[in-house]
Amino acid sequence: MAKAVVIGSGIGGIAAAIRLAVKGYAVTVLEANASFGGKMTQFTLPGGYRFDAGPSLFTLPQLVDDLFTLAGRAPQAYFRYQRLPIVTQYFWPDGTRLTAHASADAFAREVEAKLGIPADQLHRHLQKVARLYHATANTFLHKSLHKLDTYLSPDVLKTLPALPELGLTTTMHAANAKAFSDPRLIQLLDRYATYNGSDPYQAPGTLNLIPHLEFNIGAFYPEGGIYAIAESLVKLAEELGVEFRYNETVQEIMVLGTRATGVRTGQGTYSAEVVVSNMDVVPTYRKLLPNQPAPERTLQQPRSSSALIYYWGISRTFPELDLHNIFFSQNYQQEFEHIFQKGSVAEDPTVYVNITSKLTPQDAPTGHENWFVMVNVPHNAGQNWDELIRQTRQSVLRKVSHSLGTDIASLITVEKIWDPRGIEADTSSFAGALYGSSSNNRMAAFLRHPNFTSKLKGLYFVGGSVHPGGGIPLCLLSAKIAADLVPPVAAPAQT
C-alpha cells in the first residue's frame, strides 16, 4: 500500500488521516504528546471535575458526520450531539442581561425586548448574513484559494455578485456600527472576531458572516463534551487501519530533490508518498524543514490572539448561567488595543465562562460546577505572564462576582491555569497563538499558508494555522481540502 504520515493528532490531523485511509493509504499518525486531540484534550482535577482543555463551541456538526459517512459508517453509532436552545448568556457592566437563543427569530425578539432594537431589523441582518455565507462558503472555505480550479468553478458565479456586500473595504466594527445604534449589540456582534483570534476594529467586515453559524444553523453540544469529537474520530480512524504512535516527536521531514519522502523521529524513519503536517506552519518550516526555503512573508504575518484560561471547581450552582456565558468589558476597543498593540491585558477584560456540567452533570460533583474561565490575551512575546495571570485573575473575579452578586473567590475549590507559554509548549502553536496568523487585514485569508506547497511534492498542511483558518469547522475543512489534493492510490497493475 502507498503510505502516508500525519504529523500531529489535532482535529485536522485526525480528519486528514481518516480521509487518506479511505483513499487507500496506509496511514501513520505521529504525536509528540501522550494522547490525541491537540488542543482538544480533556483532564480532571481533584474532587471530580472534568474539563475540555481547549475548544468549547461546536458548530457545523455535519462536517464531523461527513467523515463517518465517507467511511461507510452511521455517524450516530459513534457520535451524538444536541442542538442548543440557548447559545450564550450575555452580561454587560450596566446590568443588562440577554439570552441569545439559537433561533434567529427568538434572538431578534430578545434583542428587541432587552436592547430596544426592532426585531425585524436584526432578522433582516441575519438573513443577509445567511445569503452572503451561502454565496461564498463553497469558494472561500471549501476549496483552496491557491488553485486556479477554484476560480474556474461554477461556485464563483454565485460568489462574484456577493463581493460588494462582504465588507472587504471596511472593518467588522465599522460595519456593525453602521447597521445598528446600540453599543451593546455592536459589542455582541464585534466579539465574533475572537473566533479566529482577531481584532474587530482591524479585521475586515467579512468576518461578520460568522454569526450565521450560530443563529441560522445552530450551536451544538456533543454527548460527553468536546473531547468526544476527537475520541469518536480516533476510534473510526483506528477501525480504518490508521496507526497512532504517541510520545514520538517528529524531528525532520525528509526531502529528496523536490519531494517529501517521509519523516524522521527519535525512534526511526517513516518513508511515505504523502506527508501531512498538522503542526503549526511556523515550526513546521523552522524545525522540520530547516534546510528548505521558507515562505517568509507568510510566516511573518501578525499572530492571532492567545488565551489565558482558569479552570475552576466551583462549590455551588448558578441557575442564571448556561453552557456559554460572556461578561463584557466596559471599553471593548481599549481591550483589543491592549491585546494587539500593547501586547498586554486590559484591567477590565471580557470574560468567557464555559460550564459543561450544565449538560453533562457528571463533569462536576453534585451541587458544584466546572468553570472554564477564559480571557483573550496576546500571543507570547516574552511578557511577564506570572504577573499578568495574577492581575487578570483579580480582574476576572471582581467582574464576575459583581455581575452575579456573589464572591466567586470563596467558591473555588481547585484551580488549574493554561497560559500562552503552556499552549505553545503543549501544542506547538507558535508563540501560543491559537489560530496561527490573525485576520486583521482584508488580504489575510489569501496570506494564510495554502494546504500544499508548490516547492515540495507530497507535502500537505492542515490545522488552524493554514487555510481556511482556526476553530473546529475550519480545521475539518482544511483536512478535506488537503485530502482532495492528494492523488488517489494507484490501482495495482493487471497481470
Automatic annotation (TrEMBL):
Q: Which residues form the Amine oxidase domain?
A: 11-486
SUPFAM superfamilies (alphabetical): FAD/NAD(P)-binding domain
Q: What InterPro entries does this protein's entry cite?
A: Amino_oxidase, Carotenoid/retinoid_OxRdtase, FAD/NAD-bd_sf, hydcarot_desat_CrtD
- The keyword Transit peptide is assigned to this record: no
Protein keywords: Carotenoid biosynthesis, Oxidoreductase
Pathway it acts in?
Answer: Carotenoid biosynthesis
Q: Which Pfam families match?
A: Amino_oxidase
Q: Which domain of life is it from?
A: Bacteria
Tell me the Gene3D superfamilies matching this sequence.
FAD/NAD(P)-binding domain (3.50.50.60)
Signal peptide range in chain numbering: none
- PANTHER family documented for this protein: 4,4'-DIAPONEUROSPORENE OXYGENASE (PTHR43734:SF7), PHYTOENE DESATURASE (PTHR43734)
Q: Which family does it belong to?
A: Belongs to the carotenoid/retinoid oxidoreductase family.
Q: What is this protein called?
A: Phytoene desaturase
Q: Which organism is it from?
A: Rufibacter sediminis
Classification lineage: Bacteria, Pseudomonadati, Bacteroidota, Cytophagia, Cytophagales
Whichever gene encodes this chain, its name is crtI
